């Protein structure tokens, strides 16, 4: 992993954590004042940087914000996990890690577990620096399946 990759993830995670703490304090009233513009800016930045770890972190924080604010529409409005968009990116470059992670998570979120796990397995078996993220996500899904 490169220093740029680590700093992008660290900066994204720090901004999301600070925003989450502020939201917990302010409650649902903070949605339109601070949260929405900040999340939109982070979303646009993630599209530009294509940092896989930041994408995963952003999506998990979106889940937390939606639960905290009792607003499932927030996740739908700000998610980057559009399966069709990532599938298009995979057709252009089948080995691109951010496309594999994005498509895998998107398919898992919309219920197509087979396709999602297939894409994550492909990245987990690769020599890409992001293979550990894919392995972690696969372990999480195996644990969820075992609990069900």
Largest sheet: none
Range of strand content? under 5%
* Discrete helix count: 8
Structural class: mainly alpha
Annotation, overall tally of beta strands:
0
Q: Uncertain spans, ≥5 residues at pLDDT below 50?
A: none
How many structural domains are formed by the residues?
2
Distance between the termini: 35 Å
Shape: globular
Q: What is the helix fraction of residues, given as a range?
A: over 70%
Element string (H = helix, E = strand): HHHHHHHH
Mean pLDDT: 83
Give the C-alpha Rg: 15 Å
Q: Care to describe what's here?
A:
- The chain has 148 residues and is an all-alpha fold.
- The protein folds into two domains: 1-80, no CATH class; 81-148.
- It has helices at residues 3-26, 31-49, 52-69, 72-78, 83-92, 97-109, 113-124, 131-147.
- The longest helix has 24 residues, at 3-26.
- The radius of gyration is 15 Å and the shape is globular.
- This is Tetratricopeptide repeat-containing protein.
Short description:
The chain has eight helices and no strands.
What are the SSEs and their pairings?
Blueprint: H1 3-26, H2 31-49, H3 52-69, H4 72-78, H5 83-92, H6 97-109, H7 113-124, H8 131-147
Helix pairs in contact: 1-2, 1-3, 2-3, 3-4, 5-6, 6-7, 7-8
Throw out a few tags for this protein.
mainly alpha, 8 helices, single chain, 148 residues
């Amino acid at each position: 992993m490169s220093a740029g990759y680590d700093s992008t993830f660290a900066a994204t995670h720090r901004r999301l954590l600070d925003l989450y703490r502020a939201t917990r304090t302010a409650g649902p009233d903070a949605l339109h004042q601070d949260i929405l513009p900040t999340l939109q800016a982070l979303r646009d930045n993630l599209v530009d940087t294509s940092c896989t770890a930041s994408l995963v972190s952003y999506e998990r924080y979106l889940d937390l914000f939606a639960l905290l604010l009792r607003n499932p529409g927030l996740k739908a409005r700000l998610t980057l996990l559009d399966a069709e968009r990532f599938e298009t990116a995979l057709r252009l470059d089948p080995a691109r890690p951010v496309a594999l992670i994005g498509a895998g998570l998107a398919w898992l979120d919309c219920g197509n577990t087979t396709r999602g796990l297939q894409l994550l397995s492909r990245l987990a078996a690769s020599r890409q620096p992001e293979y550990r993220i894919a392995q972690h996500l696969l372990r999480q899904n195996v644990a969820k399946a075992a609990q069900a």
